[in-house]
Design brief:
Layout (H helix, E strand, L loop, with lengths): L5 E12 L2 E8 L15 E5 L5 E5 L10 E6 L8 H7 L5 E4 L14 E7 L3 H14 L2 E8 L8 H7 L2 E6 L10 H5 L7 E5 L2 H14 L3 E5 L16 E5 L4 E5 L5 H7 L17 E6 L2 E2 L7 H6 L2 E3 L4 E2 L3 E4 L2
Parallel strand pairs: 7-8, 7-10, 8-9, 10-11, 12-18
Antiparallel strand pairs: 1-2, 1-6, 2-5, 3-4, 3-6, 12-13, 14-16, 14-18, 15-17
This protein binds FE2/S2 (inorganic) cluster.
FE2/S2 (inorganic) cluster binds next to loops.
Keywords: 2Fe-2S, Flavoprotein, FMN, Iron, Iron-sulfur, Metal-binding, Oxidoreductase
Protein name: Ferredoxin
InterPro entries: 2Fe-2S_ferredoxin-like_sf, 2Fe-2S_ferredoxin-type, 2Fe2S_fd_BS, Beta-grasp_dom_sf, DmmA-like_N, FAD-bd_FR_type, FNR_nucleotide-bd, MRET
């Protein structure tokens, strides 16, 4: 579990769009007067009464530490997270949340930024857009949804003004937006961000490659659909540098489960390679990355890994644990 959970109370539940509600969380009276500050793109974990842990992006302005606001889609394929929240959350209830983490950081100093949101992926993108508008930066945003009725936070986006384009598939014979057209002719050094369903992220990465945008940032909602199972096919040995312990990870077991079973207090949350809570520094060896958090360059560096789903390409790893 996270070492530094916070106590939060649900102050507001609000309808935002078809299937989407926002949740405003405030510190529980007496536990703290403010939440930790966060940066655009950050998310927090909700620890649900069922024991499930789910991560959601923060929507509100980063300067606000008196509250956290999340936007949550009642996913029809929900495995007990978003559906549970929609059906069971009530104003006044309390729950544990994690401190904010950010694996989708905004380069605030970029000369030019393009933001692309698909569906509920608008949550971190709105937070980024809000920040860039406040800083007076050059930014444009494309927000895609199947229908206008499924687009959340449109009033907030319109209130921020600037260069926002909406694409609702229903108004284009069901066709998605052309990301290559939107991303064409951007100035050199542009940073491009996308949060949305996997098919959109794949199209976005392809469009960035096609249009010559090198600074590409994406965030997935859930584990990549083609991610292989987390279990390892071969066993290996992990050395914990701080204690000098060697621990054997048997074939078929995950690294995190093995460490927890050995009594190691390894921080974790989602157990699916999505939230980033279990990020661990790698001191030696070659990880077999299976997460949906690290960028391609972070993976290639092999300096960190998500121990809940990733394994080892060789027979030995040394971790900063
Ligand atoms: S516990 Fe969430 S990424 Fe590992």
């Amino acid at each position: 579990m996270s070492k530094s959970n916070l106590s939060a109370m649900v102050r507001t539940l609000r309808f935002e769009a078809a299937g989407i509600m926002s949740i405003e969380l405030v510190p529980v009276a007496g536990s703290a007067t403010a939440f930790p500050a966060f940066t655009p793109g950050a998310h927090i974990d909700l620890h649900l009464p069922s024991g499930l842990v789910r991560s959601y992006s923060l929507v509100n302005a980063p300067g606000e530490t008196n509250r956290y606001v999340l936007g949550i889609l009642a996913d029809p394929k929900s495995r007990g997270g978003s559906r549970f929240i929609h059906d069971n959350f009530r104003v006044g209830m309390t729950l544990d949340i994690s401190e904010p983490r950010n694996h989708f950081e905004l380069m605030e100093s970029a000369e030019h930024t393009v933001l692309v949101a698909g569906g509920i992926g608008v949550t971190p993108i709105l937070c980024m857009y809000r920040r860039l508008r406040a800083l007076g930066r050059n930014v444009k945003l494309l927000y895609c949804a199947r229908t206008a009725s499924q687009a959340a936070f449109v009033d907030e986006l319109n209130a921020l003004g600037g260069d926002v384009t909406y694409h609702f598939d229903e108004q284009h014979d069901g066709k998605p937006a052309s990301l290559a057209a939107f991303l064409a002719d951007q100035p050199a050094g542009t940073h491009a961000y996308c949060c949305g369903p996997g098919v959109m992220l794949d199209a976005f990465e392809a469009a960035c490659a096609e249009t010559g945008i090198a600074n590409v940032h994406i965030e997935r909602f859930a584990a990549a659909p083609d991610a292989p199972p987390p279990a390892t096919s071969e066993g290996y040995v992990v050395t914990l540098a701080k204690s000098g312990k060697d621990i054997a990870v048997p074939a078929g077991a995950t690294l995190l489960d093995t460490l927890l079973a050995a009594g190691i207090d390894a921080e974790h949350s989602c157990m699916e390679g999505v939230c980033g809570a279990c990020e661990t520094r790698v001191l030696d060896g070659c990880p077999d990355h299976r997460d949906s958090v690290l960028s391609a360059s972070e993976r290639a560096s092999n300096k960190v890994m998500m121990i809940c789903v990733s394994g080892c390409k060789g027979d030995r790893l040394t971790l900063d644990l």
